[in-house]
Amino acid sequence: MIARLAYSALLWIALPFALARLAWRARKQPGYLERLGERFGAAPRATAAPVIWVHAVSVGETRAAGPLVERLRLDHPGATILLTHMTPTGRATGREMFGDAVTQAWLPWDHGFAVRRFLRRARPAFGVLIETEIWPNLLAACHDRGVPVFLVNARLSERSARGYARVAPLAREALGHLAGVAAQTEADASRLAALGARDVAVTGNIKFDLQVPPDTAAKGGALRTVLGPARRICVAGSTRDGEEALLVQAVEAADPAADVLVVLVPRHPQRFDEVAALLAAHGPVARRSAGAPVPAGARYALGDSMGEMLAYYAAADVVLVGGSLKPYGGQNLIEACAVGRPVLFGPHTYNFESAAEAALAEGAGLRARDAPEAVAMALSLLEDPSRRQAMGRRAEAFALANRGALDRLVAWLGPRAAASRGPGRG
After folding, report:
1. Backbone angles phi, psi at 333, to 5 degrees
2. Quick one: which of 119, 132, 140 has its CA closest to 4?
3. Does domain 2-16+24-204+404-418 have CATH number 3.40.50.11720?
4. What is the pTM of this model?
5. How far apart are CA 283 and CA 298, in angstroms?
6. pLDDT tens figures, 184-232
7. Is 70 assigned a catalytic role?
8. Do the domains spanning 2-16+24-204+404-418 and 216-401 agree at the CATH topology level?
9. Strand 126-130 and strand 103-106: pairing?
10. Which of 61, 131, 243, 353 is the catalytic position?
11. Domain spanning 216-401 has what CATH number?
């Protein structure tokens, strides 16, 4: 309790800076300042019970939550699904996926008054947090009001575990307030239990249960027509700040054949213009948003569109997964595997460590030490169609073999959610 009081005091001290940062980020993403009251707990009021609350912080978590949300809607007909986020891109993804079938809101900042207001207005029967969302005041308020909260598809890297261990009393109290944890791997479960989580089970990674839409191959083919049907294509997907410059330097140094096209797809849309300016120094910038065919002489194209990642991967010959060349922890490599493309990634994959190691073991992917080695690996695969296609087949088989986590999660969550006491009181 003393640790949480100190934490709460720090939150109050940090509040002006948090507001300033929100305004700063809103320069490129105005959505950060929309419905500002929700950041302080002004969630939409519950008009019917039960309310099932699912929190998915941003794009990746929202996409991962998609199949679970659909199962919750099926298993709880008549329930309201409240889907909360922290980023505008996450919220936009939720709207794209579910439309009006769910209610959306920002998760409030972790101030005591804000989380209590959120719970009074939303009145959830139970909550489901996706992956690694541990908010001490929120979890304490849920515990006090009798609202069970489950951390699902949970992961905790060694690096993150060391960070939580430095604030062990606060982490132990917060994790102890969870009603249960469904972890991705045994290692995740062990780390979470060591920090104080209870009722910890291993159900696997629900991102393997991605449903590839049946029109994905057709969309990939149409996109490849725009990119250049006769070209060999490497897509660098979900790249993060600083990685595009590393990749461009490596490509320029390697000087690939004229028929090789590198497509950069930044993870965050507010960076599209920044990356376009980087590419402009190396020739005309072919932007996906323009809808025009990529000129034959262009070395690069910019994937500046949202909701097309599977199509980009389906259009590629080789995929390099971003967030892994710099210490961001890596982005989702399972999507590329699911459409049968060989995956390359850098040294930093702690967000997907289990999946990355399994992909390496199954021959579905390759790990590079840095951007030059990643580019060299990609060019080598582009020169070797039989090896590339064999890796692609292994990647698809790897993704299919690891499905089933959603069924295990639902089987674990169902009886625990049914035992909930309903909307919190007080």
Report:
1. -85, -15
2. 140
3. yes
4. 0.90
5. 7
6. 999 999 999 999 999 999 999 999 998 899 999 999 999 999 999 999 9
7. no
8. yes
9. unpaired
10. 61
11. 3.40.50.2000
